[in-house]
Amino acid sequence: MGDHLQARVLEGLPHGFSTAREPDLAAILPGAELVRVKQVHGRAVVEATKARDALLEADGIVSARTGLLLGIVTADCAPVLFADPVAGVVGAAHAGWRGALGGVLEETVTAMIALGAQPENIGAAIGPTISQPSYEVDQAFERQFAETDSHFFAAGREGHLQFDLPAYVVHRLSKVGVSRVEDLAEDTYSQPGRFHSYRRATHRGETTNGRQLSVIGLPASG
């Protein structure tokens, strides 16, 4: 059996955030096809109507089709799953700091709206991601953000800061009217027995190819 976490804000919809163990997709949405994209830390979003042989370059996926599981992979970046259960529209976004800063979250919401979703009906869940105590950055990193974003940075060791990626994701979503956001508050870096972490593996000189898979889909009607 696989292993996955779920969010209350997405209750009733097939979804899951994996741990380091491979998730059992058949247990999440039986018979569904997995739809993936080639993630490039950008802001492009695609609509999924079927599984593709060739992966499109994008960091967000949306769909109003049943029988599909939208999937993204992460290993410190924030996996964000979205759903408007009223309109029957779901989405998934890969939001590292670069993608979040570039607008991938807003673009995902915009793509969902184009399919009939309403921001006030969208619930969003942030899965396992690196937390502020584990996310050390330098001052050059902070300078890429707006001055009004300074509260997402806390003092760290000399010359360094600690960045709060999950809080920044919540902030960016609030700007487009998505207020029902749940952070699972699972730190990838500090739980080596439970989650893959690119940064932890780099610091330890280990292989960095481990990823978590996060998925969401729509159940068949009727």
TrEMBL record:
CDD domains: YfiH. It comes from the Bacteria. Keywords: Hydrolase, Metal-binding, Transferase, Zinc. It catalyses: S-methyl-5'-thioadenosine + phosphate = 5-(methylsulfanyl)-alpha-D-ribose 1-phosphate + adenine; adenosine + phosphate = alpha-D-ribose 1-phosphate + adenine; adenosine + H2O + H(+) = inosine + NH4(+); inosine + phosphate = alpha-D-ribose 1-phosphate + hypoxanthine. SUPFAM superfamilies: CNF1/YfiH-like putative cysteine hydrolases. Gene3D superfamilies: CNF1/YfiH-like putative cysteine hydrolases. It comes from Qipengyuania qiaonensis. The gene is pgeF. This is Purine nucleoside phosphorylase. Belongs to the purine nucleoside phosphorylase YfiH/LACC1 family. PANTHER family: PURINE NUCLEOSIDE PHOSPHORYLASE LACC1, UNCHARACTERIZED PROTEIN YFIH.
